[in-house]
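P.,

For your records, the input lines for the assembly:
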Amino acid sequence: MRDFSHDHSMLALNTATLGHNLEGHGAGWSPEQVIEACAERGLGGITFWRREIGRRAIEIGDRVRGAGMQVAGLCRTPFLTGPLAPPNRQAIIDDFKASIEMAHELGAPVLTIVTGGVIEGSHSITESLSRVQELVAAMAPVAADANVVLALEPLNPVYGGNRSCLVTVRDAIDMCQAIGADNVQIAIDVYHVWWDTSLAAELKRAGKGRIAGYHLCDWLADTTDVQLDRGMMGDGVADLRQIRAAVEATGYDGYCEVEIFSAANWWKRPPGEVLDTIVERFRAVC
Amino acid sequence: MRDFSHDHSMLALNTATLGHNLEGHGAGWSPEQVIEACAERGLGGITFWRREIGRRAIEIGDRVRGAGMQVAGLCRTPFLTGPLAPPNRQAIIDDFKASIEMAHELGAPVLTIVTGGVIEGSHSITESLSRVQELVAAMAPVAADANVVLALEPLNPVYGGNRSCLVTVRDAIDMCQAIGADNVQIAIDVYHVWWDTSLAAELKRAGKGRIAGYHLCDWLADTTDVQLDRGMMGDGVADLRQIRAAVEATGYDGYCEVEIFSAANWWKRPPGEVLDTIVERFRAVC
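Structure tokens returned:
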């Protein structure tokens, strides 16, 4: 397991942590301000959200690399199933392709997939997972041509209804193996998996080279909002060292990406203070 | 699998569905009013909460049986771990014993355990589960002497922080097997397990005679509150028939107990209407 107690070069920021840089969420920093602040503090990478990028993917990607960092990833494909997905298959495919294209232009090696919820009227998580699998399998070659890894991210089961029918690492690994494409992998996020005592065994089953991302935050014992009340590392109940040990036992040596949605707390603080806290906590408790 | 399309004699009511019969929640019905309304509609059993019973356990139990039904169970032991548990081990043991005694007096064959959350400061779900296991093992003989089955109920992972470090059927079965007492079993609740695609396999691993209760409701796709916005059967995304098939494949032939916490919807309706809807949905979609 890597020792980060005096090294945060593998620390990455997911911009959601600063409120997506958007007006009305967090400080409203531009991508350029985020890049500068992360570079100043010695972070290694940044993951952006599509809404922040617009038509400036190439420019922003170059800016990150020019500042001595890497683009760690891009969030995300459209929802593929459930009530929040685009209205039909063609619209889903079109937007999926647009997200791959943006990842390519940005130089993001990883594009995150949040699957979407249970197919309306189906009452079947199994049927919903099958549809996700079929769509991701169809898009895998498109992503491969763009040098993009698709990262299936299992979400906490609380999102199972409308945001992600994929809610366990077990199902994510099964889906990866069923698709069988090298560039279809999984992302492990502390918020979504901290409760899963089978994590280490499942990741061992997944084998080498199947993890495309590792996301950090904490689960607050008395969380008040399952969308926007994530905790800073160390403030919650997750066993951060154990989780990272399980992730790195697979050979994962990529970024540890901090992704904290926190409307009532961290988004209200000055972004520089948030970044300083992240660096400190990363070294101390992650 | 049992056919309930024309038979609801194995339908039970968990009184939480009517707002616990308490003033300010639901209609404020007394236990006697609940018993009468359930008997009129041909339900087979009722599960009560301790707060409703007070010192009237023997009286209320006799009333249920006098009305031609059974007491299906009692909710519940104290939290055993985490921020909501009593302040020390002796206080936990004392309240655990009081709950066993009440179940005995009521004639409730099953006492539900909601374990409590992660031990404060531990950052360890594993350590928390160990403490739960030790306490339940210590109480199992006391419960056996009172003819009471202790039902470990894994809760949805969203409650993992403060209410239940036990969040998977897998962990519940492991704990049952580790304790190895005939009267330590598990309860399966649709709200808590609907997302778990390993349910049937896990219950098969548990073997015969390990399920002490089956709880019905539904998971609403766009749930607004993870405590008090459970759905009526058929209104959500759970695959109710598949879940019951998995439960009954273990040989379970007990009650199907409806437990719907719904502050903004069902608790606001007349209790008779709620009960009529439960009977109709039970026959149609469960």
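Two observations worth noting. The radius of gyration of chain A is 18 Å. The interface with chain B takes residues 82-83, 117-118, 120, 122-126, 129, 156-158, 160-162, 167-168, 170-171, 194-198, 219-223, 226, 236-240, 242 of chain A (CB under 8 Å).

Regards
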